[in-house]
Specification:
The complex is a heterodimer of chains A (136) and B (172). By secondary structure, chain A is an alpha+beta fold. Chain A folds into 2 domains: 39 residues; 92 residues, Sandwich (Immunoglobulin-like), CATH 2.60.40. Chain A is built from 3 helices and 7 strands, in the order H-H-E-H-E-E-E-E-E-E. Chain A starts with a helix and ends with a strand. Chain B folds into 2 domains: 34 residues; 131 residues. A 4-stranded antiparallel sheet of chain B has the order 6-5-8-7. In chain B, strands 1-2 form a two-stranded antiparallel sheet. In chain B, strands 3-4 form a two-stranded antiparallel sheet. In chain B, strand 1 and strand 2 form a beta hairpin. The longest helix of chain B is centred in the first third of the chain and has 31 residues. The relative contact order of chain B is 0.18. The chains are: A alpha+beta (136), B alpha+beta (172).
Chain lengths: 136, 172
């Protein structure tokens, strides 16, 4: 009788520990997923790409061809049903990056240049070609 | 309190600590990712490089800058066009978000400017004066650089001040 009691007590302790460990693992998983989601969200990526492209154009001279890897952006755009070729648009001197149907981020550049229409050259790379200075 | 009761209390405390840690991490991540990337200083530096390339090449002043032994007023008037700048910005701002000021000094006297070119929103200079001792994110970013250039036998010191505001998109 004493032996059976001890066994069931040991079983309880083991069960409690397993539940405790599982809950901890669930907690850590949620935390890691939250961190990953925050860093790779459409809003953050749109801002990063728009600013990156604007700065690249600012520092470029006519004739320059810029190839930008946008692998992460492509994944997010696909998830949000946005065609990769519509992700980057340049209107006058404003870069617009759109990775979700509702969103989009704009950033201006001061280099007064004319660009070819930006387009993806392969699965994950965008090409920007600076043709000439305006009024030249 | 028996041992099982004490163990359960420890578990509760453990979860309270986990919740506190999670709250802390959530707060830090929220603050970090909701802070926009501040690229104004980079922009100001690129602007200065572009101005320097326009004013001087291979250590010699741009030939369009000096006409008949005097600094060209035409160059000053058409500075933005000559150096290929476009200060238009997004619709959310009504005023220009850039300011650029260039001062030319003779090498003998680096106090008195002999020629000055400025373009953009002059009101932004006040941000530079305020930030002489300490930088504030909500004010415009100012960068100043200087270099020397030759024109015939004359040597000039050129100081370029570049100011970029765009605060709403770069700081919170």
């Amino acid at each position: 009788m004493i032996k059976i009691k001890n066994k069931s007590k040991r079983g309880n302790v083991l069960m409690e520990n397993i539940v405790f460990i599982i809950l901890n693992l669930i907690f850590l998983t949620i935390l890691i997923l939250f961190l990953l989601k925050q860093g790779g969200g459409a809003i953050i990526l749109e801002q990063a790409y728009a600013k990156q492209i604007a700065l690249l154009i600012d520092s470029a001279k006519p004739g320059a061809e810029i190839y930008l890897n946008m692998e992460k952006g492509k994944k997010v755009a696909e998830k949000n049903n946005v065609d990769f070729k519509d992700v980057v648009k340049i209107n006058k001197n404003i870069v617009m990056v759109k990775l979700s149907e509702e969103g989009g981020y704009e950033y201006s550049f001061f280099n007064d240049v004319e660009l070819d229409k930006p387009y993806p050259v392969d699965e994950e790379t965008y090409r920007f070609k600076i043709v000439r200075y305006k009024d030249e | 309190m028996n041992k099982v009761g004490a163990d359960k209390m420890i578990s509760v405390y453990w979860f309270v600590i986990l919740l506190l840690v999670a709250g802390g991490i959530f707060a830090m991540v929220y603050v970090f990712y909701h802070q926009p990337y501040d690229v104004r200083e980079l922009e100001a530096n690129i602007m200065i490089n572009k101005v320097a390339d326009c004013l001087s090449s291979n250590g010699m002043l741009n030939y369009e800058l000096i006409k008949d032994a005097e600094f060209s007023k035409e160059f000053k008037t058409n500075f933005l066009k000559k150096c290929h700048f476009n200060f238009d910005v997004e619709e959310k701002w009504e005023s220009t978000q850039y300011y650029i000021e260039i001062n030319f000094y003779k090498i003998e006297d680096s106090e008195k400017s002999v020629f000055e070119i400025s373009e953009g929103n002059k009101n932004l200079i006040s941000s530079c004066e305020t930030q002489e001792d300490k930088e504030y994110d909500l004010l415009a970013k100012c960068v100043e650089k200087r270099f020397y250039s030759l024109e015939g036998n004359n040597q000039y010191l050129i100081k370029i001040l570049s100011v970029v505001r765009k605060t709403e998109k770069n700081a919170k």
